[in-house]
Specification:
There is one protein chain. The chain contains five helices and five strands. By secondary structure, the chain is of the alpha/beta class. Helix 2 crosses helix 5 and helix 3 packs across helix 4.
């Protein structure tokens, strides 16, 4: 499973750790959904491969807010992510942020959940953005969506 955030926030860029801002709910949701046996700190991201997980971003440029990114940055990020997925060949790509996915891959009607698009043999699932700015999703509802992905991934290729 390769998780893909939108882009590094300023704290993530400064620390080198994904989803480093204290209000970001990625790490609690990852744990509550059953992907990790305990709550990891951003500084423990190097443990992710031991759980069969990886992490990256659509856009490399750091910003205070994702809405500071341009559509061209998203599209270029989508091209680079496609190449990364082809190289790494994860079974699943989990894009964290439906707006980022829509823009990066010109999928204007995409919704949270499994996608028809595949990258080679890699299945795609769009997850809600765990930023504290995304008030539409609670920790519990995000954990349920992440858990849906985990169950599908554990079920194997036919899921």
């Amino acid at each position: 499973m390769l998780f893909c955030g939108i882009n590094p926030g300023l704290l993530s860029a400064a620390t080198g750790h994904h989803f480093a801002r204290p209000g970001n709910r990625f790490w609690p949701v990852l744990h509550r959904s059953g992907f990790t046996p305990r709550l990891l700190k951003p500084s423990e991201q190097e443990l992710l491969p031991s759980y069969g997980l990886g992490i990256t971003n659509v856009v490399a440029r750091a910003s205070a807010r994702a809405d500071e990114l341009t559509a061209e940055e998203y599209r270029e990020g989508g091209r680079l992510l496609t190449a990364k997925v082809a190289r790494l060949r994860p079974r699943w790509l989990a894009v964290v942020g439906v707006t980022a996915y829509r823009t990066a891959f010109d999928e204007r009607k995409a919704q949270v959940g499994p996608q028809e698009r595949m990258f080679g043999g890699t299945r795609v699932w769009v997850l809600p953005n765990p930023s504290g700015l995304n008030a539409h999703w609670s920790v519990e509802s995000m954990a349920e969506e992440f858990a849906r992905l985990r169950v599908a991934a554990e079920a194997g290729p036919q899921a």
